[in-house]
Design brief:
Number of helices: 7
Helix content: 40-55%
Number of strands: 6
Strand order of the largest sheet: 3-2-1-4-5-6
Structural class: alpha/beta
Strand content: 15-25%
Order of helices and strands: EHHEHEEHEHEHH
Amino acid sequence: MSKTMILAIGGAGCNMAETIMRLANAHWVKEAAYLFADSDMERLSKLRKKGFETLSLQCESDLFPTEKLRGVEKLYILAGLGGMTGGKFAEIAAKSAKSDGVGNVALIVTLPFVFEGSGKSAKATEALKSLSDLPVKVLNNEELTERYPDINFINAFEYSDKEALSAIESGLL
């Protein structure tokens, strides 16, 4: 088992991880163990069919099952904070991993684009507050529209996923 794991939580986290697997340049990122965790059973089923390791999360629970994190030395947690799963479980996973002995834990989280609606932005702001005592890299998706003039509704999330890849490959841990 790889000593580095990339834990993708929720829809945004899973999308980021799939892009990272496809586009990674750094050997250690390509060779990392990947775990896709979500409360959406349909998404998990599709990911399993692609051969990915998955973990089912139950939104009514405040626990993160850490048995799949045993032996991991570096853990990168990817999540979008505007939804139900990532916004809730990013914090729970990070704190559970630390208490179970994972030495290095970093979160890479995204804040929603304006076009995703004010409800997602409000959820993201609230979720971000809970991460204040954790090592977190916040990627504000809306700021991408200022840096990349060709960004649009179709390609916006691909840009966001590439920013997450850049954050990982730059050596957060």
